[in-house]
Amino acid sequence: MKKMKNIFNYKKSIWLICALFIFVSCEEFLEDELLSDTSIDFLYNTSDGLEAAVVGLYTLNREFQSTSFSTEILQNKSDLVLGRAGAESLYSRLAWGVSVGDFGTRGGYVKYWTQYYKIIDRANAIIQGAENLADIDEAKKNQILGEAKAFRAHSYFSLYRLFNNIFITTEPTTPENAFDKPADKSSEAEIFALLKSDLAVAITNLEWTTEEFGRWTQASARHLRAKVAVWEKDWPEAVVQTDAVINNGSYSLEPNTKDVFAGELSKNEVLFATQTKRETVGGEKPTFTSWKAIPQYHLTPGAVKSDQNGGSGAGFVMLNNYLRNLLKDDPNDDRDDATYYISYYFFNDPTELPQDDPDTPEDESRQVGDTIDTYDQFSTDPSEVRNYYVRINPGFLKYRDEEADPTDRTHFKNVSIYRLAETYLIGAEAHMMNGNTATALEYINAIRNRANAASINTIDQEAILDERARELAYEGQRWYTLKRMGVLLEYLEDHMGNDDYNQTYGSGDPRVLIQSMPFLVNWPIPEAQLELLGPNYPQNDGY
Amino acid sequence: MKLKLFPKKVRILFSLFLFFSLSIAFAQSQKTVTGTVLSSDDNTPLPGASVVEKGTTNGTSTDFDGKFSLNVASDAATLVISFIGYESQEVAVTDDELTITLQADANALDEVVVVGYGTQRKSDLVGSVTSVELAEATAVPTTNVAEMLRGRAAGVQINLTDARPGGTSDILIRGKVSLEGNSPLIIVDGLPYDDINDVASDDVASIEVLKDASSTAIYGARAANGVILITTKRGKEGKIAINYHGYTTTRRLTKNFRLNSGEEFIALKREANRDRTTGAFLDDDVFFNALELDVIASGNFVDWEDLVLTNATLQNHSLSVAGGTGSTKVYSSVSYTTEDGLRPGSGFERGIYKLNVDQKVNDKLSLQGNVNFQLNTQDIEAGGIGFINISPLAKPFNDDGSLVRLPLDADFPVNPLWNARESVNEIRTNLTDINITGTYNFTPAISYKLNTFLRNRNEQQGIYESSLHSSGDNGVDGLARLSTLFYKEYLIENIINYTPTINDDNKLDFTFVHAVNERGTKINRTRTSGFANDNLGFNGVPTVFLTPRNNANNRDIPSREVDRRRLVSFLGRARYGLLDKYLFNFSVRADASSVFAADNKWGYFPAAAFAWKIHNESFLEDSESINELKLRLSYGSTGNEGIQSLESLGVADALPFVFGGVTTGGFAASNRLPNPNLKWETTTTFNVGVDFGLFNNLFMGTLEYYKANTEDLLLDRIVPGITGFSVTRFNIGEVENRGIEATLNTNIIKKEDLQWSVGLTYSANDNEVISLTGELDDDGNPLDLTYLDSGFRSQRLAVGQPLNNTWTTQFDGIWQENDDLTAVAPNPSAGDIRVVDQNNDGEINADDNIFISEDPDWYGSITTTLNYKGFELFADFYIVQGVRKTNPFFSEEAGGGESIKGNLNGIYIPYYTPENPSTQYPRPKKDQHSHLGAYSIRDADYTRLRTLTLGYNLPTDAIGKIGLTSAKVYGTATNLFTNTDFESYSPENTAGAFPDTKGFTFGVKLGF
């Protein structure tokens, strides 16, 4: 009997173990845990987390330059370019991005819509986190709030200018409010009140300069504030902000145009730029922008890819005749002398040099180093004209990574968003509108003289637009400026593309198309996004 | 001696237990009967046979040697001996030891089939369970077990996902019930397998497919998409049996399209570059480069398909040894497979070792150990099969025969042969499964089983792209990517079976299970470049530290991903059979899954089923024409937890940045908005089925109807962009699958020397969304919903439409010159794709989109087997009808848009020209074609002679002399003939995927 009792105990204990295993730690056992991921709780509820979250905003903002957003849409939609091929051309010639559901809207515009709102939501969460966090150093908190609010203002201002009918909120998204449907778009008054209050905080909180090139500073915040002011035609405010930046002394125009975009970009002149760096963790966001904006000169017999000719090129989009002629207004203007823009390409392959008389070996009518003149833009032979555009039309150099091998289209290049030259031109416009012609001329001539162009003596809106075209072409500001001045449709209709090229587009001549598309002053809200906002949310007029 | 002590104690204990609780007969016992139960098949002992004293509840079961011992009330007692799959026998008690030989049940209906947590006579099945005819399934020579199931069971749809050596197929049972995790649960010998291909086909003893909820509900979680039960072979007592199976397969390309030849591509490019206004052809040198002009002049066009693809072979050898003594039985096998791909550089090599051991410790306790060990290597070819889009106007080789890197003399593409030469991509996997179970029979009626299982899978992928490869050159100096994946799963199950013996008319059994399961993955990844040389490939990672840092592009931060999911389950099942006519089955399962939100872990899944064996009713009992007629009804629910972990938690992405060239750590909340309310998705299925056997089982078959409703669909709902997030996992809406399935087998000729049978399966499923968010539009119609599919593509759901759909405009031919080209906006040109203006508003936009179902209307198979003396002929047709799907080579997806522009090569089409207008294919032009989506939707129906096998069994008397017990040689052709309009290498396989093939196999099976 004793032995039997033992067995009972033995069995009992097995059951006990089983029972314990089943019931005791069930809740803990079934918990879902982050085992290798960073939690958003850390991000928004600690000082270190908030600082890292601010850095995250810069990375998100850099996405606009990366290959996944590769179409440089705003640049291509300006009146200064010739769209030859690729998606770039489809945007520039009004084949894409002209209706709510076309591929340009679905594939391209939607990224601007979602990415800016993403930056805004993360900034909202950072701002709320910093304001609610008790245990944080005051200076750190101010810096965090300054940068986050600068990003929020920058993003909402961009969205407003692109999509017009936008909805603004300062509440971070939660699972509870994610599907709330806004009753209507936000009013212009609400939008500008938020822009101004955010930028006021940014200007107050941020230092004039930063050790970390690429961060928001008081200078870049003031530049942005000036842009908001001119949008509202608040000329006095624009004067205050631009003068403050120009006269502060921390920034100055580069003496030579060739140094503005050299290397990591001029730290004297560039106020705000996205940052990339080859071979560096956190620095690798290559772009193809330069490749798209340089022609395929290497297809010309006698030319191979070289640094001198602008490196690797596909020539999807290049300078149109209108911009080329503006640059030729002053023969000394050096901005098209392979500084901002490249106008000529050179023979560099002795083995294939084309000669006038191919049958005579001693004919040396062309030498290495001569300007390529193989194709005539104004030939009567359509094949030659096509070859001119593909191979030797002038191109843009502002995105070129000098370290890239000339055969490599992958470039790592800081991209200038705002620079002092634009501050000068905004200042010139604001002073002019305020009646201070002398300062207006002083500012615009500072830009002209730096490029070796002669001073001008009278100033008007057209002079300002022309100078902005020469100085800032392909930097992504042109479309906004024309829209702000109310001349977008007019300028596009007069100047976009090239006449002879426009006729070859299967989708139609864009200068004709735009006459029936006045709604293009606003981008359409992409159909799928509009649908998600519910039946009450308004699409922009005309779509 | 010590060993014996314990069992004795237990025996005493349970004798007492019986004494107190069950039977007074025990107290009155006067006689002990002993005996052995044998099988008539091979005169081997039958363990587990039930021995009951007739008219009482007094009984026992036979041990591993088929022996029993029972105390009976008197000399006059009669014993009833029964065993599943055998005819019961009654014998009178005698003084001598009894030897009872049970006759195998001749009726195929009494085959034993494996059901969840147990077995059952086929005739007692209550739910919808299909046994796969193994001989037919294994006639397909493949390492892809899913492909063996194709056409073998009604309601089971197989979709080839990857025809690459070592590739896989999707298995879909009764349509898509969910948007996440539609794969069925694979159970091998009672254990969940995450990959059906981890079983060697020669080890398979039986395959059962469980389709309705009453069969699957016992598996609760993960079973919403059906269950496939695989049982592997085990050792039997007796002489050692050795079997060998070897075969070799040659694979060849099969297709029903051709790529543009050199001449055709030239013509296409000229046509595309014609002047839009005048129609004049431009000079060739405008759009052909110097190299292309050379090739045109020389006429040396490149046939990339021919250059890149080759015939491939597969070889398989399996050797198994099975045997055992009374207490120990062993099955052990080794399989080795080596397979090449059509694309050189692709290959698969696998070795599987299996050991199944059954050990009887004593009368009460038995142990089972199963070990599965596998090593495999998959080589993945470089750059996919991207040759389809490469121009035939190319120069792949230099004059000296060496490879040219850029065969088009343009920035890309890189010569596919070049990158193939300069790269390796291999995945080495080793898998160890250890399964140990212990079963303790407290009494013949009550048993406890502990099932323990541990799986370790270790997968190492190494990719090396040399300093000449297009990703590793240009100063990158070689690029290596290494990843290591550790997968660990364990399962512990406590299973109690209780089978009270009542009487012949009332059969009852209970099963209770408690289970704990954890699955976890840990992944390390590194990406390194800057190699001193290419000699060591990816194993040369340390050499990057010997080179200057400035050579080292693309050196990433190593990453680490850890994922874990857990399940806790309880289940109970009761089965009751009354008069061998009425069968009842009830089960309930509770599952808790870690992937759901804190308050929603638990899900409850009940099921009930009833079957009526009409043929056992008196009015049919003597019927000559109706041998079997059974009606089955079932209703029950199952759950789906097939989502990722962490979806209810907020996760941040690492987003480092550089300020002035200096790295700074950054983070942002990821695009997925966490949902703290995530819960189970539940599928409730109603099933009615009829099983019949007619005219002496000349016709046997099954008809079934089912309706499965899935609620709280786990979908990746797209969040409005203004939230800053793109997606969140949500429980929303309801989808319904309705379908019918029919299986019919006829044994037309059943003579000794000649047998001929024909089998048919037919499945039709209708999938329809019943409800979504409940929100209505202005007209009061339910709003559509967008979600992200597993490929992160945005998809659309609409009430009344199927889950698998394409939402696009409807193709309506090609605009012709005489058409009114201003009828719709934007205005088309002649030669453009025409689509239907559904709402006749003169504008083509999203309002004109329609839903096109991608599911087949029906699919089925016809199989026929002819045996004549030693010859076997087997043929198998597979039919899929009513499928329309996108052919990516006509859309933007795989270069179709660029091909019609003359920029890339593609599938030859008789396109529109002004001189020769087509009504089906658009005009080549440099501009973007609109509506390529609608144009690329194609009919993908097909009929295929999937298998044709001729085998010959050598006469036993002849082979006996050389020591063989059986010998068979066979030849098999697979995919010999396909009838389809879908331009592709295989209709389930789009033209860009690794091509499916036709195969010719020769094989030998030997038994020693």
Q: What features would you highlight for this structure?
A:
heterodimer, A: mainly alpha, two-stranded antiparallel ribbon, 22 helices, B: 1008 residues, five-stranded mixed beta sheet, globular
Model description:
The complex is a heterodimer of chains A (543) and B (1008). Chain A has 543 residues and is mainly α. Chain A is built from 22 helices and seven strands. Mean pLDDT of chain A is 91; it is low at 1-8. With 1008 residues, chain B is mainly beta. The radius of gyration of chain B is 32 Å and the shape is globular. At the A-B interface, α1, β1, α3, α4 and α7 of A face α1, β27, β31, β32 and β33 of B.
In short:
With 543 residues, chain A is mainly alpha-helical. Chain A contains 22 helices and seven strands.
Distance between the termini of chain A: 93 Å
Largest sheet of chain A: 2 strands, antiparallel
Give the overall shape of chain B. Answer: globular
Which percent range fits the helix content of chain B? under 10%
In percent terms, what proportion of residues of chain A is strand? under 5%
Mean pLDDT over the residues of chain B: 86
Strand content of chain B: over 45%
Which class best fits the helix and strand makeup of chain A?
Answer: mainly alpha
The strand count of chain B comes to: 52
Low-confidence stretches of chain A: 1-8
Name the assembly state.
Answer: heterodimer
Give Rg of chain A in angstroms.
28 Å
How far apart are the termini of chain B?
A: 39 Å
Number of strands of chain A: 7
User: Whole-number radius of gyration of chain B?
Assistant: 32 Å
The greatest interface here is:
A-B, 98 and 94 residues
